Amino acid sequence: MSTQRPPTIDPQAAQRWQKMPAGPSPWLHEEVARRMEERLEWIKLQPKNWAHWEPVRGGLQAHGLLSRRYPDAGCFVTETQEARAAYAAKTITTSWWNPARWTAKPTRFETPANGAVQMLWANMALHMAADPQALIAQWHRALAVDGFVMFSCLGPDTLKELRGLYQALGWPAPSHEFTDMHDWGDMLAGAGFAEPVMDMERITLTFETPQRLLEELRGLGRNLQPQRFAGLRGRQWRDQLHQALSGIPLHLTFEVIYGHAFKPKPRLDMRPETVLSLEQMRETLSQRKS
User: Fold this and answer.
1) Rounded to an integer, what distance in angstroms lies between the CA atom of residue 45 and that of residue 129?
2) Residues in contact with 83: Cβ distance below 8 Å, sequence separation at least 6, in sequence order
3) Which of 10, 85, 109, 182 could form a disulfide with 79 if both were Cys (CB 3.0 to 4.6 A apart)?
4) In this predicted structure, what is the pLDDT of residue 2?
């Protein structure tokens, strides 16, 4: 098992990103959410309740797809920042894809209690978390036994073209590093999840101008690398960046990692003397036979 820690992220920069005003979900995140929703065909469990984790940045339109897939399930919408929570509530309840079209159960805009949901959906959140292991542990607590997490995030090949350009210019990296999918699998197992399944694809976006490319990047996130440029850069630096971008093909690679894992029944705490109820003994014997 890998012992690699997730890449270092500047926690203050991550906190500032979390507090930034809400806006429309990025196109890339909506597209990734659509592709991840199709992967739910592989999972037969029908949740009684599910949670949508930070949908404003992860893809609000995906909420309609998920509500239509699980019309009989209750839903929790979790946003950790008050302004984004209000934005999510307004958008979800007033959009043409309002989940009320498919389900009569109301959407609850709050964090689910421990063990309250059978599915937790988290699109494109992990790679911007200052402490991803703590976030994974939080997801594990929210899930009921036999429930599952479904998530996506960016992988190490993301922005490889821009990284190469910055390196050639002698500049610090344009973004923090992104974690390999095998390390995410190890972190899931370390948090108590079972049967983690990871896969990956690369999406390439092409842009007409350097300005449009940079505008897209601003909507996707921020550079949380501790060794990034200190302070603000001026117009001269911006013009130099535009000129450098004009000399290369204007396309960017995004490595997208998809993962899901189940929350198993807790293992017995082995002590010199272990006392079980009759029901616990029957359940343990049944598990060994299966």
Assistant:
1) 28
2) 21, 22
3) 85
4) 42
Question: Quick one: 65 exposed, middle or buried, by C-beta within 10 A (0-12, 13-18, 19+)?
Answer: buried
Provide the number of structural domains found in the chain. Answer: 1
Specify whether the CB–CB gap between 276 and 284 falls below 8 A.
Answer: yes
Range of the domain at 146: 11-289
Span 12-19, mean pLDDT? Answer: 78
d(CA 170, CA 255): 24
Determine contact, residues 221/17, Cβ cutoff 8 Å. yes
- The pLDDT of residue 1 is above 50: no
Predicted TM-score (pTM) of this structure: 0.85
Residue 201 structure tokens: 């694809």
Q: Hey, what's the torsion of the CAs at 135, 74, 102, 93, to 10 degrees?
A: -70
DSSP code, position 257: E
Q: Is residue 233 part of a domain?
A: yes
In angstroms, how far apart are the furthest CA atoms of the chain? Answer: 75
What CATH number is given to the structural domain containing 79? 3.40.50.150
Q: What is each CA distance from 281 to 23, 92, 145, in whole angstroms?
A: 52, 46, 18
Place of tokens 């014997």: 285
Identify whether 196 is part of a domain.
yes
Q: Which residue has the higher pLDDT, 85 or 273?
A: 85
Beta strands in 167-250 (DSSP E): 194-206
The 3-state DSSP class for residue 101 equals helix
Q: What is the Cβ-side half-sphere exposure of residue 204, based on CA atoms within 13 angstroms?
A: 6
Instruction: Report DSSP state, residue 17.
Output: H
Q: How many CA atoms lie within 13 A of 267 on its CB side?
A: 6
3-state secondary structure of 35: helix
Q: Quick check: is 5 in a domain?
A: no
